[in-house]
Amino acid sequence: MTILVTGATGYIGKRLIPVLLNQGHVVVCIVRDRLRADKSYSEEDNVYVIEADFLSPNTLENIPKKIDIAYYLIHSMSNSSKDFESLEEQCAINFKRYIESTNIKQVIYLSGITNEKILSKHLRSRKNVEDILKSENYALTIFKAGIIVGSGSSSFEIIRDLVEKLPFMITPKWLNTKTQPLAVRDVLAYLYRAAGNKEVYNKTFDVFGPEVITYKEMLLQFAEVRELKRHILTVPIMTPKLSSYWLYFVTSTSYKLASSLVDSMGIQIIGKPSEINKTLKVKPITYKEAVKLAFKKIEQNGIISSWKDSMISSGRLSRRFHKYVNVPKFGCFIDYKERRIIDSAITIEKIWSIGGKNGWYYGNILWRIRGYIDKLYGGIGLRRGRTNSTELNAGDALDFWRVIFADKLQKKLLLYAEMKLPGEAWLEFKIEDNKLKQTATFRPRGIWGRLYWYAISPFHGLIFSGMINKLASVEFQKTILSAENKSYLG
Asked: For residue 173, which of 218, 290, 326, 432 sits 20 to 30 Å off, Cα-Cα?
């Protein structure tokens, strides 16, 4: 079958596509920007990457008409737009209008559990999208999930931050809210097993894990898996705003996402039983099992997707990456350095491993200070780290940078700054003619931008010189080459 996947660069989409390919389907991936499409897709014969934006109907003509099934995985937890509900509604309307002109047989939508009378605005929006997508031209299958647990999921990473950083927690009362967490592997099982299955046509199912537990119990069970002793005290005096700040300062989430999560977490998420597990032969695993599996993926450096790489976590970047690929020169301050290198392959690997737990090779304490300052001013700081310790792709979050371009064959990595700045900043690493060229570009905004550049120039000179010296270090590269030779000879 030919299957259309919207939200192809999102947390669920990036995990669903390989599963569909393994089953022999032809997959059409819809992305708003080709630069963010996974490079591995270009190596697959049965993958087609189409650039289209469902908020811009004129771009949808690129989508092929011969489609059997479509997955609608477009939604947002961001508060970046005050009218996000109307935007999600328009997105669904445009999708439906176009998809009805194709040969589509079934649309599968991943929504949220909405059984309570009072819903958060995000859950209200999801429910509204469900109604919009209903059509007489195709069968609609809706899966409504609650908290999704897996390596790289927002809930997993936030709970991990809380548990691993705080031995004792004074927490808001919504931690006593009940929910039914579901492993991401089970979410994927529902999605791919529903494709073409007429037993689920024009039906809606709540999908959830086997336990009803509170968020507090989720934290404590997570601690048990990590063999950590944690104490939690819930208090009734924390306002939603205070709760949002609590999550923002302790975890890697942005304030906007923290605010959205707090808005949703005060609402009980309990699913309605059905025969869906029997129909699709899915046996959901427990929360503890899901956490253990997530850590296995992390230990194997096998995280396929992370919420941190989503544009939800973006501090400044707009949706269109191509706007930032061509680094400006006019009216900019530029710090350019180059060093001769021995082995470009070794240098590339070192560049591709920069940031996160590996650090920035020089002046890491200064990088951390800059991260703390950014966080105090409402920025993202260094909390996001990186999803994979050795690989980078366009769209990935890298501490307070966003990867704009990453190509090992072209020997070029381009980063765009997402920290709070009175202007815009890029950092580029490129290897040409056995030389490592490192360029930091800053385009100031007004007088404050210029004053900012002059104030930090001494630190830039120190940090950027130290960083390129480490990357091009002869001693470092000789050590690596020597180790490789010994391994070869041995």
From this structure: 290
How many other β-carbons are positioned within 10 Å of the β-carbon of residue 266?
15
Buried residues in 417-442 as b, exposed as e (16+ CB within 10 A): bbbbbebbbbbbbbbeeeebbbbbbb
Each residue's pLDDT expressed in tens, for the chain with a length of 490 residues: 999 999 888 888 888 998 999 899 999 998 887 776 656 666 677 888 888 888 888 889 888 899 999 999 987 645 444 577 888 889 999 999 999 999 999 999 999 998 888 777 788 888 999 999 999 999 999 999 988 998 877 778 888 888 888 889 888 787 888 999 999 999 999 999 999 999 999 999 999 999 999 999 999 999 999 899 999 888 877 676 777 777 777 776 666 767 767 766 777 889 999 999 999 999 999 999 999 988 887 776 555 555 455 544 455 555 555 556 778 888 888 999 999 998 888 899 999 999 888 889 888 898 888 888 887 777 777 777 787 778 888 878 888 888 888 888 899 999 998 888 888 899 999 999 889 999 999 988 888 888 988 888 888 888 999 999 999 886 655 554 454 444 433 3
Query: What CA–CA distance (Å, rounded) separates 222 from 287?
Result: 9
Written as six digits, the tokens of 9 are 């660069």
Q: Work out whether strand 26-31 and strand 2-5 pair parallel, antiparallel, or are unpaired.
A: parallel
- Six token digits for residue 231: 């104490």
Residue/partner pairs of 373-376 with CB below 8 Å, 24 or more apart: 374/400, 374/419, 374/420, 375/249
Q: Are strands 397-398 and 401-407 parallel, antiparallel or unpaired?
A: antiparallel
